[in-house]
Design a protein that fits this description.
Blueprint lengths: L8 E7 L32 E5 L14 E3 L19 E5 L3 E5 L5 E5 L5 E5 L21 E2 L7 E8 L3 E6 L6 H8 L17 E7 L3 E7 L18 H4 L2 E9 L5 H15 L7 E7 L6 H8 L8 E3 L8 H25 L18 E2 L4 H4 L6
Parallel strand pairs: 1-3, 2-4, 10-12, 10-13, 13-14, 14-15
Antiparallel strand pairs: 1-9, 2-7, 5-6, 5-9, 8-16, 11-12
Length: 375
């Protein structure tokens, strides 16, 4: 995937379909006097629906489709014929897409699983035909309902990659190389900074029995939370990872200091990121002898698990995968307990209570009714 093909932010204009008008019509057949009203209902307007699709990795397919409209419902007709419903418009988005209001920036929804559907804009309901309003005391109603109008909204679709483990580190820390070693991913690898200009995903196999998804997030530099380097563009992708794997090279001036700088950038961007589980891996440790490794180990943070690895010699790679799997399971257990203990707050919204649209009166002369339909 080239840089130009990685699109993680689009702004689109959406509009649902309007409902069709109900028909005002009276039955006129030979030998059937006073046939009565037989105007049909209008069709339902189409809705705008978001659907998660795991086969999409970016928002590229929406980059040049900025106006998305659903179909309008058709008007009702005589002989109780209901108008055809408008066609729904389904917008396929990658799993991990967050939706915001394009005008206010207000959060709307979050597509976090494959096949998940969210109605972004509900289509207008079709109006009732005059047959619906006939009663014993009102046997010839000359009115029907118009359809509900369509709804419009500008929305921002923002992709935040969903992965179990996110790689966090400065440029040239060895993130891409590690991802290529532990998975089948083939990210661009070179000996200069900012080789990775877009996130890469890989599926990591754990002893042939388990697997998890690892994301290589483009390198952060000091001041990234203020827009320096690649800026904020990729920091948001870190928000969607269950666990953060900090990668600091063994030849760094101070491993602890680099780790603290990375942590500080994440905290300034979003303090909630500090609540995520963390693991520290010292990369390129093939350059260390046993004595140096011991000295560095004594300086590492004691509040998180740490490990020495080398993508070149595969030193510690199996142990790293085992450690990550163990930590991910801890997180999953913690999340499950939180859900079980959390009280449920169920709210109901009776949509029908909002169904209030005026009647269309047809005050044509009696002679006009002989022709049949209200056009």
């Amino acid at each position: 995937m080239s840089e130009s093909n990685f699109v993680d932010y689009v702004k689109i204009y959406t509009r649902s379909g309007k409902g069709g008008k109900g028909s005002v019509h009276f039955r006129r057949e030979k030998y059937i006097p006073w046939g009565g009203p037989d105007g049909g209902d209008g069709g339902e307007g189409g809705s705008i629906i978001l659907r998660g699709n795991r086969n999409h990795w970016t928002l590229l397919h929406l980059k040049y489709e900025r106006h998305i409209f659903a179909g309008h419902g058709e008007n009702g007709a005589r002989r109780l014929c209901k108008g055809k419903d408008g066609e729904d418009k389904i917008i396929e988005v990658p799993v991990g897409t967050v939706v915001f209001d394009g005008e206010t920036g207000e959060f709307i929804t979050d597509i976090h699983r494959d096949g998940q559907e969210v109605v972004l804009l509900k289509g207008g309901r079709g109006g009732k035909g005059n047959n619906f309003f006939k009663t014993a005391t009102n046997q010839a109603p000359k009115y029907a309902q118009p359809g509900e109008p369509s709804l419009e909204r500008k929305v921002i679709l923002q992709l935040k990659l969903l992965a179990d483990v996110g790689l966090v580190g400065f440029p040239n820390a060895g993130k891409s190389t590690l991802l290529s070693v532990v998975s089948a991913a083939k990210p661009k690898i070179a000996d200069y900074p900012f080789t990775t200009l877009e996130p890469n995903l890989g599926i990591v196999d754990v002893r042939g029995a388990h697997s998890f998804i690892m994301a290589d997030i483009p390198g952060i530099i000091e001041g990234a939370s203020e827009g320096k380097g690649l800026g904020l563009r990729f920091l948001r992708h870190i928000e969607r990872n269950s666990l953060l794997l900090f990668l600091v090279p063994a030849d760094a001036d101070s491993i602890k200091k680099e780790y603290e700088i990375l942590l500080g950038e994440l905290m300034r961007y979003n303090p909630d990121l500090l609540d995520k589980q963390r693991v520290l891996a010292v990369s390129k440790s093939d350059m260390l002898d046993e004595e140096l490794e011991k000295a560095i180990e004594n300086e590492l943070p004691s509040d998180i698990p740490s490990i020495f690895i080398s993508s070149l010699t595969h030193k510690g790679i199996i142990s790293l995968k085992d450690l990550l799997w163990k930590e991910l399971n801890k997180q999953a257990f913690h999340d499950a307990e939180s859900i079980i203990r959390k009280p449920m707050n169920i709210q109901t919204d009776d949509f029908e209570d909002d169904f209030d649209f005026s009647l269309e009166d047809d005050s044509r002369d009696e002679d006009d009714w002989e022709s049949g339909e209200n056009g």
